[in-house]
Amino acid sequence: MTAPLHLPDRYDEPDQLRDQLRRILRHRALIALGIALGLLGGAALALTRAHTYTSTSEVLVRSTADPFGTVSVAADNLVSMGTEQQIAASTAVAVRAARLMGQADSRAAALEDDLRITNQAKSQVLRFEFTARTPKRAARGANAFAEAYLADRKARNEAAAQRATRSVEQQIKTAEAARKKETEKDTEDDAKAAQGELDTLHKRIVDIRSRDTDGGDIVRRGEAPRRPSVPGWPTLLALGLASGLALGVLLAWLRSALDTRVRSADEARAALRTPVLGLLPPGDDEDEGLLAVGRRGGDRAETLRALAYRLRRTVLPAGPGRVLVVSPRHGAATEEVAVNLAAALAECGDEVLLVDADPGTPALTARLPLLPDDARSPEEASSLPEGSRLVDAGSAGRFACCAGGTGSPDRAGVTSAVQRIPAGSDSRTTVVVTRPLLEHADALALAQRVDGVLVVAGLDTTRRDDLRRVHELIGCSGGALLGAVLDTGRRRGRLRAVLRRRPGRRPEAEPAAPVVELPAQDDTLSVSRG
What we know:
The chain is an alpha/beta fold. The strands form two sheets. Strands 5, 6, 7, 8, 9, 10, 11, 12 and 13 form a nine-stranded mixed β-sheet that branches. A four-stranded antiparallel β-sheet has the order 2-3-1-4. The C terminus is likely disordered.
């Protein structure tokens, strides 16, 4: 196995809390969406409820459970406050309240929606809370419902009294009819008993008619409130902002937890089980060409040069070697890494051969600064492999490029590229670039002919499952993974990249990613096979 090569990671922090916060802050759009939804909700609530007023009236409920036939029973045992609360919220009471407010009976249902009736435990007081757009209407509604409830309760008590009176009167009629049928044989005591029964019944009627049927009192009348029943605009907007922020953080956390893309070098290292040898910073513009080492400066060129030095010192220490550069899927800067790796190795003094084994795209020689045939020296012309051209890498020197691609998606280009890969005793260092591993099987055929495979993955675009499959496929094919290179993309926007893309170019650097600095590393690394 290899010694661990530690690459500075933009999320390399020992504190897990800070790492989790960074993961959440990657999804700023979701956080902004949550804040926007919270503010919209607060504004909607302010528009609908900020100018509503609530007035309260209270009614003391008296005992009404058969008051005409029950004696020596506590009043609180005769009142079912749950039943009275349901009666107060009934449609009959709402219709009475609508009439008291001067509205039609059809408005009773709408008035019920603005009413709230409560009752505290161990209390015989009903509280009527009515909400309206104006303070006066709120007070009028609360009082109307309290009066309507008492009127309904009084009507029920009066109906009960009338029923009791009719029952007693019927008993009196029966007693008087029985008395008329008495004979002379009846004693004086029997006559007195019959008269006493009639007197009791007449007294009962008097008691029933003298009872109070109101059934309750208004102990608190509704008054016009001075302030709205809900907080004002500033408070509602602040609550909406806080709620939206919480919602946005929750959405961002869920998105981060469900995201399968590679977000850091540690994640790529864990998925591929191989070191990350380079972390490419964002490039300025992809229209400047593939070749950067020896032709132009910049952080990206220096990082690619450091990658070549790292490979030279770690996995190719014994002289010439063969490296396959491949990506899991389209979207990574595979060709750029291969071309600049060849230029950097040439800068180190190696004789380099770049083999294009992609048969489905135009040859790399059409997009590289080729050296004219008349500018080649006799030694270069004689040692140049068949079908190859010299590439002018500026201050980095020159290297050979073999155009294995044919412009058609058949496998003739791959077969030709395999034949062009020199044997182990050849004096040239060979860099091979081919189609994505998970989309075509070309890389598996080439992995057995090279000393190692360098995987190029897009940071924030490549899935961890794809990297695991790459590790498994290369291991099963007998190849060796040298390491991985993570591409952070380009600084300019995706839409601008699409509009400015020239025909025939492969979309390798479309996604944009944050800036990542990569200092040069001198750690050692040995080849890990299969």
